[in-house]
Amino acid sequence: MSLRRMAIWPTLPPDTYFRPPSNFTPFPLDQENCRIFSLARHAIWNACKTIGLKEGDVILVPAYHHGSEIESLIQAGLTLRYYELNEMLEPEEEELEGLIDESVKAFYIIHYLGFPQNVKFWKEWCDQHHIIMIEDAAQSFLATYDGQPLGSYGQIGVFCLYKTYGIPDGGAVVSTAPPSSPAKNQSSGMWRVFKRHFNWVATHRPELGSVHLVFSPALRWLKKQWDRPHQEFDLNDPNTPASKMSLNLLPKLLSEETAQIRRDNYTYLLKHLVDVVPLPFRDLPDGASPFAFPVELENPENFLNLMRKKGVMGLLFWINPHPSLPVENFPHSKKLRQTILALPVHQELNKTELDQIVKAAKEALYALEYA
Ligand SMILES: Cc1ncc(COP(=O)(O)O)c(C=O)c1O
């Protein structure tokens, strides 16, 4: 049986090279104080240095995080103070009030999966306490809150461009005190471009998708052998620029329709799978630009294995916290790591592919229920 193979990462259509540059230049790319590095972690490290945060300054950070953003804050010399999130994945003012003292100089807030936090409220709260707000919009490029772009409320806003478009890399930062642009030699980005094209073909051509599915268990096994714990958090050289391919292709990919297509795809999946969607993601708020479609299950591994056999490469989301987190002190975040997985929702998916995701998910849920 031929199956399309889909992952949460946006693919790169082969016709991209023939497209003219877009007239659409969304925030933060239209800002004079925007800088682009290879990865968002590089952008965070540099922005912390230029905004005036000093060695030992305390920053409030969420216990539910990727880990690489935490590593870059530590490498920038900051001292972390973790906070928990409530049922809606929001910070709780009461908890934060208990954590704040004169040593606290910054507050780090993450917009999860392209869904906006109430940043207006949090910016006012930071201003009252005379601390800097760092807005992590790594998963939320193109999303808005109250009509204003995410990442524009804080003194620093950070974005992963490659999470929204099929480019090899690109971590942008906008800051009231912008760092210098990275001056080193750029890599070409060719290998990652090839992978993104390959994924495009595997998504749209079931013949290739099926071949990939035959080899993917072996590839996953090999990758696991090479991985060392927490490798994915490494900062590496913070002055790494974005690759040539990313900067060349991004202007051809930018589109005013991207966020709306992601929203439409999300709405379609939500209509069929709402029962397994975590509470904070059951309604699509105005301005969201979904990065992935979250599913919450007690045993996500079994579900993911069944989905993979049907061509849907979901992802166990943020399973490993940064090693600096005292995991047991943050039970809600711990539970989120054990139970939330992500499915594809990106703008390159068509109706046939969305239907394949819905069908695979329904069959997997049915199989698990009656196992
Ligand atoms: C919330 C968040 N912040 C920051 C980052 C760091 O992004 P990068 O991998 O581009 O350094 C990630 C990466 O996944 C992330 O999910």
Describe this structure in words.
The structure is a single chain. By secondary structure, the chain is of the alpha/beta class. It folds into two domains: 6-13 and 189-232 and 255-369, Aspartate Aminotransferase, domain 1; 16-175, Aspartate Aminotransferase, domain 2, CATH 3.40.640. It is built from eleven helices and 14 strands. It has helices at residues 40-51, 68-75, 93-99, 119-128, 190-204, 206-226, 244-253, 258-273, 300-309, 331-339, 351-369; strands at 6-7, 34-37, 58-62, 79-83, 104-110, 132-137, 144-145, 148-149, 156-160, 171-175, 293-296, 312-313, 315-316, 340-343. The strands form four sheets. Strands 2-10-9-6-5-3-4 form a seven-stranded mixed beta sheet, with helices on both faces. It is globular. The mean pLDDT is 95. The site of pyridoxal-5'-phosphate (PLP) has 12 residues, from helix 1 and helix 2. The site of pyridoxal-5'-phosphate has 12 residues, from helix 1 and helix 2.
Summarize the topology:
Blueprint: E1 6-7, E2 34-37, H1 40-51, E3 58-62, H2 68-75, E4 79-83, H3 93-99, E5 104-110, H4 119-128, E6 132-137, E7 144-145, E8 148-149, E9 156-160, E10 171-175, H5 190-204, H6 206-226, H7 244-253, H8 258-273, E11 293-296, H9 300-309, E12 312-313, E13 315-316, H10 331-339, E14 340-343, H11 351-369
Parallel strand pairs: 1-12, 3-4, 3-5, 5-6, 6-9
Antiparallel strand pairs: 2-10, 7-8, 9-10, 11-14, 13-14
The chain binds pyridoxal-5'-phosphate (PLP).
The site of pyridoxal-5'-phosphate (PLP) has 12 residues, from α1 and α2.
